[in-house]
Amino acid sequence: MVIKKRAISEEDKLKRRTKILNTAWRLFKQKGGLLPTVSGIAGKAGMSKGTVYLYFKTKEEIFLVLYLQKVAEWFESSIAPVKERKGQLTAEEIARVFTNHVIKNPDVLMMSSIAKSVIEENIGDEALIRAKIASAGLLKASGEIFSASFPGTSKEKGAEITLWIISLITGLWQFASHPPHISKIIKKQNLTVLEPDFAESVTAAVAALIRGSI
């Protein structure tokens, strides 16, 4: 007698996929920015490694999806206020809009810092192409809003400014953030110039970039 397995519904597949992503994100934050293994993700999610591989080919592919989700959340929280108050916000106000989200949610910057060297280098071309198309779409959307907010700024220039803002924020975070033992050495040697207050510095830096670009 052959026992037929019940087909998994699309809803159940989505729930499993979401559980994998949520578990991976939680472990990533717990590990301080290190990618957990597929075995670790599977164990915490209460499923087998084989099940995880049905949804994602590699652990890097899992984190590419997460990275794009977190960046999209960042953009949405930043773009909406600028769009609502089109042409009414100063460079400083736009800078605060772009930086507030990552100041409160620095984990997205932690992931951004390894996006190219760790994540993108270890995924297939198909997944990479999807990711690049999604990233380009976010930049174009932001570029359109910058163009509408600042007369004389083209959509292409707006997208370019957005790219500069992301690069500046990510780079400054990497420069200003240190593990506790390194931070202790910096303070002991009175080298605090190497560890500026990120929240204060990043908003001022982004405002200066915007003023000089429009």
Automatic annotation (TrEMBL):
Which keywords has UniProt assigned to this entry?
DNA-binding
Q: Spell out the molecular function terms from Gene Ontology.
A: DNA binding
Q: What InterPro entries does the record point to?
A: Homeodomain-like_sf, HTH_TetR, TetR_C_34
Which positions does the record tag as DNA-binding?
37-56
Limits of the HTH tetR-type domain: 14-74
What is the recorded name of this protein? TetR family transcriptional regulator
Origin species: Desulfosarcina widdelii
Lineage of origin: Bacteria, Pseudomonadati, Thermodesulfobacteriota, Desulfobacteria, Desulfobacterales
